[in-house]
Amino acid sequence: MLRVVVALCVLCATAWAQAKPTGVVTKAPKLVQAQAPDYPQAALAAGKEAKVKVRIHIDETGVVTGVDVVEPAGNGFDEAAVAAAMQYIFEPAEIDGKPGKITVETTINFVIEKQPEPEPAPAPAPKHDDHQGPPNHGGDTTKPVALSGVVVERGTRKKLGGVIVSIAELGLDVVTADDGSFYFHGVAPGTYKLLAVDDKYDRFSRQIILSKREALEVRLWLRPRGGNPYETVLEGEKESFEVTKRTLTRDQLTSVPGTFGDPIRVIQTLPGVARAPFGLGLLLIRGSNPNDSGIFIDGHEVPALFHFLGGPSIFNAQMLESLTLFPGGFPGRFGRFDGGVVALETRPTQTDGIHGEAKIDFLDAGGYVRAPITNDLSVAVAGRRSYIDALLGLILPAPSDGGERVVTPVYYDYQARVDYNMHEDGRLSLFLFGSSDALHVLDSDPESATSEDLDSSTKFFRILASYERPLGGDLKLTISPAWGRDTIVLSGAEAGADGPFSQLGVVTDNLSYRMRIEGNLAKAIHLDTGIDMVSRVTTYQALLPIDDTGITSTSSVNVPPTDIFRGASLLGAAIYADLGIDLTDRIRLIPTLRLDGYILDGIYRGNIDPRIVVRYKLDDFWTLKAYVGRFTEPPEPETFDSRFGNPNVGLEHGTQYGLGYEWRPDHLWSVESELFYVDRRDLVAFTDAAVMNSDGTYTFVNFDNDGHSYAYGFEALIKREISPHFYAWLSYTYSRALQYSTSTDTWHATVFDEPHVMNAVASWKPGGGWELGLRYQLASGRPMTPVVGATYDADAGAYVPVHGPADSVRLPTFSQLDARAEHDWLFDRWSFGVYLDCMNVLNQTNVEAIQYDYRYRQTAPITSFPIVPDLGVKGTW
Amino acid sequence: MKRVAALWLVAACGNFQDPDIVIDLRALSIVADPPNQVVDISTTSTEADILAQLVPTTVCALTSDPSFAGGETWTMTLCNLATDDRCTDLGSDVSPQIFIGSGTIADPDTASPEPQLCATIQPNDDLVSVLLNYVENDPLMGLGGIDYGLLLEVGDAGVDPSQDIFAAKTLQVMPRIPSTVTPNHNPTISGMTASVDGSDAVTLPLVRCADLGPTNTAPLTVTTQDVVRFTPVEPPGIHEVYVVPTIDGGSQMFTEAISYQWNAGSGSFSTDSTGGSVDVFGNTPPLYTDWTPPDPTLISGVTDVPLFIIQRDDRLGEAWFEACLRVMPVTPATP
Prior knowledge:
Chain A is mainly beta. Chain A has 5 helices and 52 strands.
């Protein structure tokens, strides 16, 4: 006998789009009444089955206002699916805490199931139509619960809502609640087949026996399709305030081959970002220098996102929600940089049970745990430590008898977060994170008259507090203070010395405060305004043999170290406003104004940065965009120091222009490209100039604002958005970055100028727990200045190169293929994975620099990494 | 630190020639006498006043080319090396170039007595033009000293001039600011000791291989299995105390650090530069270096190896010394 099963996979939404583009979905829509579609008779007679993917538009009352067929199946299935979906009733979604319009996508499956002849029914079943209770209750709700249970995901124990649970023999269906629960009332004793269906999970089937005496409670473990699908992203419509932003999700950040899970390196695969040499985590955005681009975590600036020597990210990916690159034209809430911006949004903790992850590979080990404290209070902690120091001890050659040789590079990072949900009163969070990189090198040899003991460390931490709550109307308020400290220490001494002979310590105390109000002022006007304040006090403590005469020494002068204490302070306060105005249904104008005031070591500098963005929507697929804006960056603290810098050095300015388009033919694919031009002026540059004072003494200028550079180019991105089994993108950038040299009065390429940069990334989960990925990089070689000869400097005993035209030749083209394979095994309560991330699988020789012999006659390449496999294991529960 | 760094970098480094070992044409040292001069100036000083205080400077160079049997041609030119690193911008008013001298010397490695590659810089208007060019381009207008450069171009006689090599030496005229500024003197040593495989140190005869003869002192003789430690013997007062002006109108006093550069015709040194200033770890660098003779397979019979020691101070002072090491090949006995 054939039985028709129409599996409703409602609320297995793979994406939703908000009607209000910048709101945050605080509550998903919940299906409260589903209608099984009528199976097309002709298709049924022909034995045809189908899957129809539909997009359901739900208004703020939960009523379905429209249904679009996304992936049609024909044969009458589309019409049947639309007719059924129009009958659905939802509890409305909440956006920023208020009911709002939303769109969900789902798949309706039409399945003809071959059933054996049914055993005699144990008892007459209550009719499905009799059911009047919540959707997770089935049967005759006036009777006691005979069967109840919870649907959970295998491997993670995540409770699954929206899953259809059926008792096949009785034709009873329920839809699980958000906590995964379901109940069947009044089911007579007997043997039944229990089904659970969801389009993101393998079909679940289990035989159960109900006795007369007691109700049965079960737990249904659903296995994700393919074993380990990507966690798909819930994000707003692509159309937004930012003219150009590129957002990656947590899965994308950690699974790109060759990155070893480092988000910064993933960012380096996007258009507009040049390749950094030696795998370093430098941000080289649209021809800017690394320090011209900012890294923000929840709106607060941090000094770095990676450990030393191109090491891994300092942030556990489980703590991340998303990472967004703004290559140019970034919104007013970001400031104090004239390059680009990378913005990380962290992930609030959840109260869905105790979950965690542990990971071990060749370089380090780390873990993450989150747990609820109460229904509204939850906590998460994460950490990682390297053990390269232990491994080095095994491979370094032993010192001679009586000697000592120690090389201990150690890095670690930590994160801890507490979230408190105050419901209609908002949400409160406290987040602590930090990182440390330290290197200790000790080398002593009894046969040598010298010994070395070097200590270096780079540390930072931040404490971020955040309170957000809805305001009147459609506005949301976020208040966020932060405090932290950056510390760099470098010291050297003879082995066994009581203290350092020379030392440099730089400590920066950072205090920042942000207040942001964001939301719709009216239907066609969106506001994003706020205050952005920062206090940065940098102290320098040095014990160095500095020749402070100001007179050029002819060789290595024997100067005893002296204590030097210096300090520099930066106080910055800014107000900003982005106003999104929908002039028509197609044209959005976004004027921005940011007013910055600085007090640099007591001297005030002010600045006004106007910006404007225009987006013109040609149709549902094409959008044109253009922008122009001014961006300002304060000088580095050491440059306005009164002794080693110039207290009168001014702000750096950049003007950015862009013109581009976006084409989104469907919800998975997108193509975008942009022409850009960036003009940077008043750049702080070193100068050896001196001015004579009225008393005949001299003062060195040290730094001035005579630097000037510009960059122009074209970038393109073809992206296949992440879906449960695949994501990919292809990016290309053509860029030229040139700077002016006052010494030669010429323009020449900047040190990181790379005209052509291409990246191709693809990752696939074919099923069976496998994940396979490839990344390919192709980039122009960096410019270099040729050496055309050498002169022996008889006063120094060394050769001095004679250079050709500055940056007039290039290193060879860089080409590298990376691969990653991972296999996950799912158990009921946890999962276990083994991964191999292999950088440069073809062992391509890439030249990163040229080294010369002592008299610059012979050359040899300094190459990038050879093939580097990294094998690791991880467990998640 | 160097040893640890070397361990890490060895894989990335090319297989370059050892700079300590002289195998082809090299300029090893240029000595000026006097190395610098101090002049009294005032707001009313004229160029003639300054010229009158200057004395001629003799400049001599040490060269070697074991791969070439023959003489060497040379040219010396004065210019402002800060703006013209090869004194090649001829005819330009930006950087005047002054021809000092040229000539041909006999083979510096085999001729005896040692050929003199020397010239004299006369204090004249040409020199003044170079000094003025430096002052015009110096942000401190010569307060810390007026540097002028001497460029030596040298090549093997009869060989394509495009194969010539270049060496530069900075000379200096210092205004007597402050009044305690004193001229520098070239450094020197009292002698050189050699200790073979840790034995008692003996005096190393400072005689060139080319000057060896039946009447001269015999050179130090070692085997290819020895390691020789060379230590310069510094005379008292070699570390001069000197004063330099500071830009705020004051002055600062320093004591000279003396460094040594070691080169040889073959073998290898434990370090090619000794002495000098205290390093950032607080180590006072030792004066000695350990020399390992060449592998017996690289020499044929008893071989004389030239040794070059170049001594420098902080203030452009320089001196060179030469010696000869007689190496006897010894093949290690197989067990």
